[in-house]
Every structure is written in C-alpha cells, then in structure tokens.
Amino acid sequence: AEGGGCAPGVLVATRDGAGAWSPRLIPGQDAPLAAQVVNWVDVLATTAADGTPLVCVAWGQYSASGVFASCSPDGGATFEPQGVIAFHAAPAGEDEPDWDTTDRGYHPELVYSPAADRLVAVWLLREAAPADASENPAYLVWSCRDRTQPTWWPRIADPLIEPALRLVATTRRSAARDPRVAEGPTGLAWV
Question: Helix %, strand %, coil % for the chain, to 5?
Fold first, then answer.
C-alpha cells in the first residue's frame, strides 16, 4: 500500500493467463476485521452448476477471531461483499478476544458441491478453555451456504451463536491444527 500503510481491506489479485495481476477489493469492510495481517487463506476456482466460473476465497484472522469468505460469480472480475462464516467477539470493554477465554476460528478450507450448488467451509474451532482444563479444546467444524445466498449457517456471529457442526467425532486427531480438505467423487477427504 502507499506510504507503507495497510490496504483498505481485503484484496484479491487475479490474472488471466500470463497477463498482469489485477487487484480486486472485496467489498463489505464494515464486517469485523481488526488491523492485522489476514492469515490462513484458501482459494477455490471451479465451474458452478449453471456453468458460470466461480472463484471463492476464505480467510481467517487471528486478532478478529473470525473466519470470512467472499465469492466472485464472474471468474474473479468482481467479488461479493465479505461474508462472516464465524466471528467471536471480544468481551465487553476489551479490544480483542482473550486467547484462553474466547472461542476462535482458524484455517478455513472451501469445497463446492455442484450437485447441491452449495459451498462448504471446513475450519478449526478452538473453544474457550474450561475452568478445570489446562488446554483449549479444538475441533474441525463445518459451515455452508447456498452459492447464490450470502448467509453462512449455522450462524456463528454475534448476536446469534448457533452450535458449531463438528466434522468428525472428538478425538485427538480431530483436533489437528492445520486441516486440509478435498472433495472427491465419493465425498470429502481430510487430513
């Protein structure tokens, strides 16, 4: 950005073949986003069920304790407003959520199902540490939305916090800190 400052929001750079990279600002920056580097980015490029080129990007942000996404229905030329997959607000009177006492979302991975015309985000939910535990429990969970609708469900953003949907039963392996997800002809695979 000019003058060494930060960009005015989340930017996605696209290019067609060997052409120049073109920055695209994702609109909707009124969504909760703290002034810190965006981490854990996943990009999905595919063809939608109706034949349109679909590009989606999902990202997590440490300080905002959230997982966000935006899709382009025209192959990356324009992007829809930023959508909230999950956001865990700081307690009243605090600037950022506390690491140990607030749930946090990380590492989104996107999958598109043409049969259902639906997007799925698999992400890591790190819950607040119980009072009698020394570690925060962490789980792979999933959220989804219809491709043409902006709202992700379950709703995991203030003021409505619905229970997260776990991808697998709670095991030591299901608490992996960096999940990777892929869609195959018979379903989802994760490592």
Answer: 5, 40, 55
* DSSP state, residue 92: T
Q: What is the pLDDT of residues 153-168, one digit of tens each?
A: 998 876 777 888 887 7
Q: Determine how β-strand 104-113 pairs with β-strand 83-87.
A: unpaired
pLDDT of residue 2: 39
Return all residues near 82 (Cβ < 8 A) that are at least 6 apart.
9, 10, 26, 27, 28, 29, 31, 33, 68, 69, 70
**pLDDT of residue 47 exceeding 70:** yes
Q: Are 43 and 66 in contact (CB under 8 A)?
A: no
User: Which pTM was predicted?
Assistant: 0.78
Residue 61's identity, in one-letter code, is Q
**What pLDDT, in 10s, does the model give residues 72-105?**
998 888 899 888 898 876 666 666 656 666 777 8
Buried/exposed 154-172: b ≥16 CB within 10 Å, e otherwise = bbbbeeeeeebbebeeeee
Residue positions counted in the chain: 191
Find the Cα–Cα–Cα–Cα dihedral 30, 34, 36, 42, rounded to 10°: -60
